[in-house]
């Protein structure tokens, strides 16, 4: 059995199926002791987190399960305590849990917004905040937060999801800065994969929808896990505050916002709205970003 994560304790949220399950199983294969977290149950009422944990144990690994709701701070604290009580430490946190509530913006309800933000952003804060004191005390640890090109690039009908996933980028960078003195690191990964969340959340009504599905169906969820494992490993100790993407056999490093053009208005009148309209907008026009969606940017087939 490979041992890239030998004796490390890793919490994976949303690990009952899809990408999260693949991450939990891959980390266990690499020697990690895994806390499998998921709210869902199967058709027989059995917690799917326990089913994944049981399969890991049967394969010779170590795993326990959790059905805690990370959207609630008290339950996120309980999730972390499960790891501490079982193994006395936490070396990795993978914030994978997420939900889709797709709706065109002008029809989006407050409930659709609030629920998405609670899980996709607040939930990740909750788990990161709960685990931080333990990682601080250890003087080590790694967090990986799942962002999305819905926020990094753009997509139709996902204002709530995009806002939460872009919020994660800011959260991750802040964690990386605040925790670097304790040798705790934090990174984001934008995964491309066919998962139950995608299947349940993306419409299949138009020709455009069908084209989107054909691409997504070729993206295997197990292809995401190796990057997550590498970031948690000791060999990834020099990597923090970055934004990655993973799609099939491809790994991406995303840019981060920095100034790309500067305009100085230095005449006697100084800066004014009229001067900006007359001089700055024309100067910057060639560098404006177009309104693109994820599929416009990642237009080639995954390999």
UniProtKB/TrEMBL annotation:
A Pfam family it matches: adh_short
SMART domains (alphabetical): PKS_KR
Highest taxon in the source lineage: Bacteria
Domain Ketoreductase: residue ranges: 8-206
Family indicated by similarity: Belongs to the short-chain dehydrogenases/reductases (SDR) family.
Name under which the protein is recorded: SDR family NAD(P)-dependent oxidoreductase
Source organism per UniProt: Zhongshania guokunii
């Amino acid at each position: 059995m490979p041992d890239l994560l030998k004796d490390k304790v890793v919490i994976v949220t949303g690990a009952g199926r899809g990408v999260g399950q693949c991450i939990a199983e891959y980390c266990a294969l690499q020697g990690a002791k895994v806390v499998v977290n998921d709210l869902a149950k199967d058709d027989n009422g059995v917690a799917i987190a326990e089913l994944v944990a049981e399969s890991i144990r049967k394969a010779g690994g170590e795993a326990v399960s959790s059905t805690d709701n990370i959207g609630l701070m008290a339950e996120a604290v309980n999730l972390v305590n499960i790891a501490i009580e079982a193994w006395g430490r936490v070396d990795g946190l993978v914030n994978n849990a997420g939900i889709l509530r797709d709706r065109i913006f002008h029809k989006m309800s407050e409930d659709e917004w609030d629920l998405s933000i609670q899980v996709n952003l607040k939930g990740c804060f909750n788990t990161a905040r709960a685990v931080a004191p333990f990682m601080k005390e250890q003087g080590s640890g790694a967090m990986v937060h799942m962002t999305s090109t819905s926020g990094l690039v753009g997509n139709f009908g996902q204002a709530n999801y995009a806002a939460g996933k872009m919020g994660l980028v800011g959260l991750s960078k802040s964690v990386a800065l605040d925790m670097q003195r304790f040798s705790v690191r934090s990174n984001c990964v934008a995964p491309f994969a066919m998962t139950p969340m995608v299947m349940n959340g993306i419409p299949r009504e138009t020709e455009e929808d069908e084209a989107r599905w054909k691409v997504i169906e070729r993206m295997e969820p197990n292809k995401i896990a190796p990057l997550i494992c590498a970031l948690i490993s000791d060999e990834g100790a020099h990597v923090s505050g970055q934004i990655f993407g993973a799609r099939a056999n491809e790994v991406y490093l995303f840019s981060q916002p920095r100034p790309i053009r500067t305009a100085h208005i230095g005449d006697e009148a100084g800066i004014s709205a009229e001067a900006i309209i007359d001089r700055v907008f024309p100067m910057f026009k060639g560098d404006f970003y177009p309104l693109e969606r994820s599929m416009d940017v990642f237009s080639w087939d995954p390999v």
